[in-house]
Amino acid sequence: MSAEVAGPSGMRLTDEQRLDWLQLLRTESIGPKTFRRLINLHGGAAAALDAIPGIAAQRGRKIAIASRDDCARELDVLRENGASMLALGETDYPSALRAIDAAPPLISLKGKVEILQRPMVAIIGSRNASAAGLAFTERLARDLAAAGFVIVSGLARGVDARAHRSTLGTGTVAALAGGLDRIYPREHEALAEQVAETGVLMSEMPMGWEPRGRDFPRRNRIVSGLSLGTVVIEAARNSGSLITARFAAEQGREVFAVPGSPLDPRAEGTNALLREGATLCTRAQDVIEALLPIIGKDFGPPDLLREQPVPPREPMWDEWEADDEASVPSVDQSLELDEPPQKHFAVSPARVAGPDIRAHVVELMGPSPVSVDDLVRAADLSVAEVQGTLLDLELQGCLERHPGGMVSLIQA
User: Fold this and answer.
1) pTM for this structure?
2) CATH no. of 355-409
3) Counting beta carbons within 10 angstroms of the beta carbon of residue 351, is it exposed (0 to 12), middle (13 to 18) or buried (19 or more)?
């Protein structure tokens, strides 16, 4: 067995192996599943890196291997910011997260890493939550924390932020869509620092990475993947919270929904979840009773060779599905590659740019308020690009801002 494949007691990478892993993961075309396959096929990250030129030649193209110096600097910057990087299969890597499809091979952490070994529950919901929804979030989070659960969420406005703030004293986990130093929304930078003091900030993205639309569902799979169960409080019909709930269901985790008034659009998504079989949640005891029997559940050994569950319906990476070198598609076959999750690689040419960004954002808007987060996700642009466009529209008198980070177009 390779030193990089964990046995029953977990493993510990050397500094050189950790750098190998990071260089492989930051290489063009490599996503979580491809990473696993290359490690398993070649026996380690260093050998996989050596094999990539040959694989690329079979495809009739070049694959840009990440700069080792850049990767070394990334690790240095993490350490300078009081953070660390944990590898899949290492002893401290959360066992529940390790079990999901496309588990992050490497996660960056800042804070009290030991709390990741405690049972966790995700609380998510509307960014434009009602006063009643926020009050229920606070009560539920505190009661679950008192019962010994760590609360996980995504540091978004509304329900997420209230769940974090309510459990700062007991430790909470915030999964980020961007790098550990790129907090979104920006007004939550102070909250993020408070989370790191008693809990954990977590990201699979590099330092300096500004979150883009596709990064938020990636973040959501981590929120649900860390947790034994996910509670949804107020979610509109097309809410990103429903994406997290779907991930939780596909990961074999419990899904809870808080009922709401049929007259409130913020309850359409949660009421739909209840119709589809989610567990009713009106108090912390509903969650505790459902999860107590599975606390300490064995999610399987920390082994990179373990088979993965069924993938989600919408892929977050366009992954190479080869199980061995013989099955690598030849140059005349269609092959979609992962977009590299690192800031120094070129952006996909399919992305909009320049003046087209404004038209693209405007096309996604209308007279009905929409959250900036949903715009970022739908447009698949960076937060900075969307915010810059919105500011431009506001200065021209074309944009109206609403409570809860919502925006709409002003009709001429």
Assistant:
1) 0.79
2) 1.10.10.10
3) middle
